[in-house]
């Protein structure tokens, strides 16, 4: 099976690619390597996969891994309506895992155009390529942010998601609607995955786990929004990876009925953790007490997230289960090693 992983230089895409290669699949990674956060971290992830920075930095260049014979990488944006179909035609993928997107809730308030370009126009281009190049299954990243102002806890995939509170959330909901229409019209399978607050080694610098750890180690105060009265379903990266790969590996027998062509799942730890408890776990791991700046609620944020994963259990026999104490410790150890701390 040959798999295209978009966003392969990103946090989740890196781990998905690494796992798929470990299982013996042929993988082509794609990423535009934008400067939303430090590109050095993106190039470092690719280096772990055997792709040199000088090869990865050339737009359109197809770089072969020096360590993984079944992995190659191309720098390209999903918005490229000419080059993307050429890639699909040349590579003849069986399955596509679309993780590339402009991420971040708060950044969508500053640069909304980037979200439309990548998350809407780019996703349409992916759907069109899947349609015209006989892709058997498209697995794509959605987000828990689609639940918006939903007050019913825990969040279920049958809940209404018609009230997003950020443009980022609106683009992710649009992806689900677009995928549904393409599955219905053209008969190929699409699976959307609503990720819940993913954290772990190699994580994004704009996420809470990274921001808190970085600030505490450097002796700086941490920003605690909504006076700390937030709860999140924190999900460790290994749990996300296993869930995504299980879905990618599902045999496609061609016997799916029309409704089964389109599915959406929550992937979360099925537990809502108080933000202050999360911070306490980081403090324990660092053996340091953080200086906290208690701040107001940020636009686009929600007070609580919590995933119901019954569908994931029923269809794939899988439930994420890494406790915060374990996941936080692994991130802190990675951070100290990567940045040569202590």
TrEMBL record:
Per UniProt, the keywords (alphabetical) are: NAD
Any idea where the NAD-dependent epimerase/dehydratase domain is?
3-268
Entry protein name: NAD-dependent epimerase
Q: Which residues form a coiled coil?
A: none
Q: According to its UniProt record, what is one Pfam family this protein matches?
A: Epimerase
**Highest taxon in the source lineage:** Bacteria
């Amino acid at each position: 099976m040959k798999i295209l992983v978009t966003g392969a230089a990103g946090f989740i895409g890196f781990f998905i690619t690494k796992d798929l290669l470990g299982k013996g699949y042929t993988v082509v990674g794609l990423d535009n390597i934008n400067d939303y956060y430090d590109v050095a971290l993106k190039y470092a992830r690719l280096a772990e996969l055997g792709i040199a920075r000088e090869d990865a930095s050339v737009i359109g260049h197809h770089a072969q891994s020096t360590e993984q014979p079944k992995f190659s990488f191309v720098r390209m944006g999903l918005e490229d309506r000419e080059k993307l179909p050429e890639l699909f035609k040349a590579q003849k993928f069986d399955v596509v895992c679309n993780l590339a997107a402009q991420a971040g809730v708060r950044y969508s308030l500053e640069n909304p155009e980037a979200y439309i370009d990548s998350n809407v126009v780019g996703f349409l281009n992916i759907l069109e390529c899947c349609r015209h190049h006989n892709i058997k299954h498209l697995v794509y990243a959605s987000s828990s942010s689609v639940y918006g102002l939903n007050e019913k806890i825990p969040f279920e995939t049958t809940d209404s998601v018609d009230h997003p509170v950020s443009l980022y959330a609106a683009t992710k909901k649009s992806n689900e609607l677009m995928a549904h229409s393409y599955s219905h019209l053209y008969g190929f399978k699409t699976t959307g995955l609503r990720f819940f607050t993913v954290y772990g080694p190699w994580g994004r610098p704009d996420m809470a786990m990274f921001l808190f750890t970085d600030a505490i180690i450097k002796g700086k105060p941490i920003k605690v929004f909504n006076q700390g009265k937030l709860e999140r379903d924190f999900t460790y990266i290994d749990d996300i990876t296993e869930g995504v790969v299980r879905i990618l590996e599902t045999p496609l027998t061609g016997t799916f009925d029309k409704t089964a062509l389109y599915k959406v799942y929550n992937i979360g730890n099925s537990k809502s953790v108080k933000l202050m408890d999360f911070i306490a776990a980081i403090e324990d791991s660092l053996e340091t007490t953080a200086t906290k700046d208690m701040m107001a609620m940020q636009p686009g944020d929600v007070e609580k997230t919590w995933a119901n994963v019954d569908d994931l259990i029923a269809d794939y026999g899988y439930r994420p289960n890494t406790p915060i104490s374990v996941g936080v410790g692994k991130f802190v150890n990675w951070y100290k090693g990567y940045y040569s701390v202590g």
